[in-house]
Amino acid sequence: MLPVVALVGRPNVGKSTLFNALTGTRDAIVADVPGLTRDRQYGYGHFEPHRFIVVDTGGLVESPRGIEQLMGLQTRRAIEEADHVVFLVDGQSGLDASDRFIADLLRRSGKPVTVAVNKSEGRDAGVVVAEFHALGLGEPVAVSAAHRQGLDELVERALAGRAPPPAETAAEGGAIRVCVVGRPNVGKSTLVNRLLGEERMIAFDLPGTTRDAVEVPFEREGQAYVLVDTAGMRRRARVDEGVEKVSAIKTLQAIDDAHVVIGVLDARETVAEQDATLFGIVAERGRALVIAVNKWDHVATARREELRAELAARLRFLDFAPLHFISALHGSGVGELMESVRAAYAAAMRDLPTPELTRVLEAAMTQHQPPLVRGRRIRLRYAHQGGRNPPVIVVHGSQAERTPEDYRRYLTHCFREAFRLGGTPVRVTFRSEANPFAGRRDRRTPRQRRARSAPGKR
Q1: What pLDDT band is residue 241 in, cutting at 50, 70 and 90?
Q2: Which positions ≥6 away from 209 have C-beta within 8 Å?
Q3: Are 236 and 40 in contact (CB under 8 A)?
Q4: What's the pTM value of the predicted model, to 2 decimals?
Q5: Full DSSP string of 42-66
Q6: Average pLDDT over residues 430-440
Q7: If you write DSSP's letter for every residue of 258-308 in order, what string do you get?
Q8: What angle (nearest 5°) sits at the alpha carbon of residue 69, between those of residues 64 and 75?
């Protein structure tokens, strides 16, 4: 499981800026106004070789009032969830009473803590951290979240002694890890019970019944699986119980640990922002995805074709993921769903030989030439596989990194079609090769160069 790192500190010390820097996103609101983060924000951090989950929190104050009390409660729960706490302090304003209060709280929590002194850019690190030794929480680290300085050292300190998770994992013992995700009450546990053929999961009409990720091994048509049933992820404004807060962490960990994710929707409801966000997280993590539209038996026959079109339009950004219309309660469509799961796993773990990848690349360029960039033609020479789960294809050439986004999408589509990579995201990266003649002096005389460039001369 990915380790969990919580960011805590008093208001306005830069926790959200650090969250964005660690996750490479802009998901946390950042502004120079204390107390903007009132709830916990979750994201994936990736600093080679470490991968982890980051939790951003609201500010802690010694004497909270009103909303500050709720923010403090959320922060305390984040500390409970965390494997490591990063205590962020302000290197410009210096040590104050609130920092001492938080340090005492963290000592009593028993969690490992790293003190990060933020806003330290342009200053001597030893001088900036000196006064924060008084907190008694070990050697502080000087960082600048806004300028991404000191973050590698911070991550190394926070995750010291933890073995980095493997970048790609084949099925151990042949078992495919399948994670079932979706909003509460869409029928995830009912689907798991249908697959297992027994009531292994509690399933009734009450949102949030499943409070944790539960792993269940089973076999279907000769293939071994491990099913992971997760608690539903709601919009944060609707999540009140601490136990459901913990479930968000478990869901993110289960997604990262899966080979294939089954995203479950309720056919009676429209695709909500939460659905798109959750499934988008799956795609962003590079996990194979199969979408199950559950409770299809509740949809009138006359409405079904219209609903299929609506779903296809709303989930266009997940066009690699097959859609299955099922009834988990009655079992209709579940067999075909698992066939897609198996095919998606095979696609995600497929070996892509370099000669075949290069042939597909050449055929694609014959069909549509790479565009001109700054008056020069992009020249793509060969491709090779750079990873699995998801498949990563590395394309080499001159000016390759300047390949426009629309041509990148075109090549991704060509590779997907040629190798039948349905059900899995495909990542195509581009690397520009150095000019072998760069830096070599032209020793010809001006007369020789003019003669060489004259029409008809060779």
Answers
A1: very low
A2: 184, 189, 202, 203
A3: yes
A4: 0.73
A5: EEEEEETTEEEEEEE-PPP-SS--T
A6: 64
A7: -SEEEEEEETTS---HHHHHHHHHHHHTT-EEEEEEE-GGGS-HHHHHHHH
A8: 110
Q: Which two tokens stand for residue 344?
A: 């998606």
C-alpha 266/C-alpha 241 separation (Å) is 23
Contact 420, 347 (CB under 8 A): yes
pLDDT at 3 over 70: yes
pLDDT at 394 over 90: yes
Contact 426, 390 (CB under 8 A): yes
Residue 112 contacts by C-beta under 8 Å, 6 or more apart in sequence?
Answer: 83, 84, 85
Hey, what amino acid is at 15?
Answer: K
| CB-neighbour burial class of residue 435 (10 A; exposed 0-12, middle 13-18, buried 19+) | exposed
Ordered alpha helix ranges (H), 183-272: 188-196, 242-257
Instruction: Tally the C-alpha atoms within 13 A of residue 391's C-alpha that lie toward its C-beta.
Output: 27
Greater confidence (272 vs 294) lies with: 294
Q: b/e map of 45-81 (b: 16 or more CB within 10 Å)?
A: bebeebbbbbbbbbbbbeeeeeebeebbebbebbbeb
Residues 6 or more apart whose CB falls under 8 angstroms from that of 367 comprise: none
Return the percentage of the chain with pLDDT > 70, whole number.
Answer: 78
Q: Could you report the per-residue pLDDT of 124-161, keeping only the tens digit for each?
A: 999 999 999 999 999 999 999 999 999 999 999 999 87
